[in-house]
Design goal:
This protein is an alpha/beta fold. The protein has 2 domains: 89 residues, Alpha-Beta Plaits, CATH 3.30.70; 218 residues, HAD superfamily/HAD-like (Rossmann fold), CATH 3.40.50.1000. It is 37% helix and 22% strand. It is built from 13 helices and 13 strands. The protein has a 6-stranded parallel β-sheet, with helices on both faces. Strands 1, 2, 3, 4 and 5 form a 5-stranded antiparallel β-sheet that branches. Strands 9-10 form a two-stranded antiparallel ribbon. Helix 1 packs across helix 2 and helix 5 runs antiparallel to helix 6. The chain starts with 11 loop residues before the first strand and ends in a 13-residue tail after the last helix. Its cofactor is Mg(2+). InterPro entries: HAD-like_SerB, HAD-like_sf, HAD_sf, PSP. It catalyses: O-phospho-D-serine + H2O = D-serine + phosphate; O-phospho-L-serine + H2O = L-serine + phosphate. This is Phosphoserine phosphatase.
Length: 309
């Protein structure tokens, strides 16, 4: 059976996205992509702005999204633009599954916790290798938490003061919820951080690991089962079932190897400023745009996007 996402006879759309802070998308860039699509065999319609100088759609027919994506990437070359090609029908999703660390928030919160015990560099290196798929996630998590044995609960909570939301996070979640999307924060991090972050952004659900604390300090253990790649994928499938939709109607976003199964399962799986091994396999990627790029990928325009403080 032909993969519906790879049919050439249906109306498709190629989206170009720039960083909203720099607004680097101009008519020259759009024209270069249009010509590249035509050279690849596509019939291309006029572009439409989703956000002027930030995001635009180029509708086309006649070639597959894979062929269009390859042509668009070559056309933008080293310009600071993200490109994505997909069927126009069904591009707006009913469910979002989002990673937290280095996605919804700017850093790795476990690494931040370790600063209190002087092990940030050592633990950050283990995190980097685990997120790039070089280490087993569950084993690496147990190892890192074990190194934090005795860390005071107050120091864990104080980590929240150093947590910063990624640009566009609140806007993306507020917009999706306004349009009826169910949003879940599914993290290999910890509830002590994930639950407040979810509240800041307005997520409907939180799935994360739980640190075991006794007498006001970490025991060095994590409650089982650990939320790893299987749990993230299982949550995606569970929430699709609860909404009564196929996995193709789910969007997911993340940066690490433990996110890859859910990125590949979702209809719109976005590698966000991801580790090299993840970016190499994901169908969609945001390297230059902020998290509002998740909205432009689904065809939301400025007049549909929520304005948040």
């Amino acid at each position: 059976m032909t993969d519906q996402s790879e049919r050439a006879d249906e109306r498709q759309v190629c989206t170009l996205i720039a960083d909203p802070a720099s607004r680097d998308l101009d008519l020259t860039g759009i024209q270069d992509v249009r010509e590249a699509l035509r050279a690849a065999g596509a019939e291309v319609s006029d572009h439409r702005w989703l956000s002027e100088h930030v995001a635009a759609d180029l509708p086309y027919r006649g070639i597959t999204p894979s062929a269009a994506g390859t042509a668009a990437r070559k056309a933008v070359a080293d310009r600071p633009l993200d490109t994505a090609a997909q069927p126009e029908t069904g591009r707006r999703k009913a469910v979002l599954i989002a990673d937290m660390d280095s996605t919804i928030v700017t850093g790795e919160t476990l690494d931040e916790m370790s600063e209190a015990v002087g092990l940030k560099d050592k633990i950050a290196e283990i995190t980097r290798r685990a997120m790039n798929g070089e280490l087993n996630f569950e084993e690496a998590l147990r190892e890192r938490v074990g190194m934090l044995t005795g860390l005071k609960e107050a120091d864990v909570k104080a980590t929240l003061d150093r947590v910063a939301l990624s640009k566009g996070a609140k806007t993306a979640i507020a917009t999706l919820k306004r349009h009826g999307v169910t949003c879940a924060l599914v993290s290999g991090g910890f509830t002590a951080i994930a639950e407040p972050v979810a509240e800041w952004c307005g997520f409907d659900r939180v799935v994360a690991n739980r640190l075991i604390i006794e007498d006001g300090a970490l025991t060095g253990e994590v409650a089982e089962p650990i939320v790893g790649k299987e749990a993230k994928l299982a949550t995606l499938r569970e929430m699709a079932g609860q909404r009564g939709v196929h996995e193709s109607a789910v969007a997911s976003i993340g940066d690490g190897a433990n996110d890859l199964p859910m990125l590949l399962a979702a209809g719109l799986g976005v590698a966000y400023r991801a580790k090299p091994s993840v970016k190499a396999e994901a169908r969609f990627a945001l390297e230059h745009g902020d998290l509002t790029g998740l909205l432009y990928l689904q065809g939301y325009s400025d007049d549909e996007i929520a304005q948040v403080a």
